[in-house]
Amino acid sequence: MRKCSSKKKSYLALKHRKIIAKQTRNAHRHKHETRRFKLLEKASRKANPDFYETRDLRKKMIKITYKKKSYDSPIVKIDIEKDLGIENPDDIDYFLDKASTFIDFNSKHLYLDFSKCNRVWPSGITLLCSLKQWAELTSQAKRKPIIMSSSSNNVRVNSYLGHCGFYDYVGRKKDTDENYYSNKEVVKIQREKRRSNGEERENEITDLLRQYSVLTENEIMMFDSIILTEVFSNVTEHGISKVDAGWWILAQYHQTHKFISISIADNGIGIRNSLMTGPQRNEIKRRLNNDPKNDGQFICHALTENVSGALAASQKKGLLVRRYESGSRRGHGLKRISSCCSKLKIPFAIISHYGYTFLDADGQIVTTGAKLSKVFAGTMYHFSIKTK
Question: Would you give the distance in Å from CA 270 to the centre of its chain?
Fold first, then answer.
């Protein structure tokens, strides 16, 4: 071992004192900035108490909705024997019934048997991704449930699961290298890392519409500026981050069936919980009972009234006659989406936690309701657009 000279010792002592001094300055600076931040937040809360009350309620609801689960029940096997999706009206009941059996599961192992499944539509893929997100958000680090799935006897199903991005999304190895689909026909599902990715996905969807849909350029611009803008605003605000930004999309051109299927979803607290923790909650309480069995009614209410769960939605003012302030953001995003879809003759559906609502091409509600168990871990918006 070499002997340390006195000169070296002096240098090291000086270096150590400089490091300590720098750490002390940083600590004082951090303490000052923290105090300044708290004072600014206190002043801001005093100036805008409604916003902060809404934000605090939203945070509390997120913790309640996605509290950690034990996942200690025995293994559950789910057979997917029919086409999984809402694209075909005949499959809707099966989709909802089947989803209610596994989305809110509590088992150590969940096994999905796709061996007899002949088709998984984009909405079905989106449903399965919501299941993956639900397990990630509600499981403890050392007690994560194991979700397994079989391959299908139909090679086209396996090919589509790999091609659309689903296997990459859930982290499963692809079953086959055979590909029956074109990259031009799909906007692949993926883990969105940033809210700003919404603009890029919008462009991909509009490119798909220009290539295959019957919509004119003006109609595509309307679909983009109203429907996609509102939907992406919703999913990017309400998506809960963990391993990603908490929202995702999948769009697919179906040449044989002559339509484009678009599914856009988030893993948020659902429309009912968003409304009941939003700025307009007191107005809504007077009309609807806050209960999961009323999730369908909450969706319909948001589609037909000027209500919103957005943090920036304004409240009605006035003692005798309650009105929104002139020029205020009143929160009618879902109503705008519904109205625009009816003008463009696009069937539209929303599935959120326990509830669901389906509208036809004329904007009329075809079916609405709620299941006793969750049918989607978050909220999904689905559109079917005719092709050339």
Answer: 9
3-state secondary structure 134-197: HHHHHCCCCCCCEEEECCCCCHHHHHHHHHCCHHHHHCCCCCCCCCCCCHHHEECCCCCCCCCH
Residue 104 carries which DSSP code?
Answer: T
Q: Where are the beta strands (DSSP E) in 11-130?
A: 76-79, 109-113
Q: What's the pLDDT tens digit per position in 295-319? A: 999 999 999 887 777 766 655 554 4
Kindly report the pTM of this predicted structure: 0.85
- What integer is the mean pLDDT of 190-217? 94
Integer Cα distance of 364 and 121 in angstroms: 24
Q: Where are the domains of the chain?
A: 64-386
For residue 161, give Cα distances in angstroms to 26, 73, 125.
Answer: 51, 28, 8
Percent of the chain, pLDDT > 90?
67
| C-alpha closest to that of 255 among 187, 201, 181, 204 | 181
Contacts of 28 (CB under 8 A, 6+ apart): none
Tokens of 101: 């059996």
DSSP code of residue 287: T
C-beta separation of 268 from 384 below 8 A: no
Q: Is the pLDDT of residue 245 over 50?
A: yes
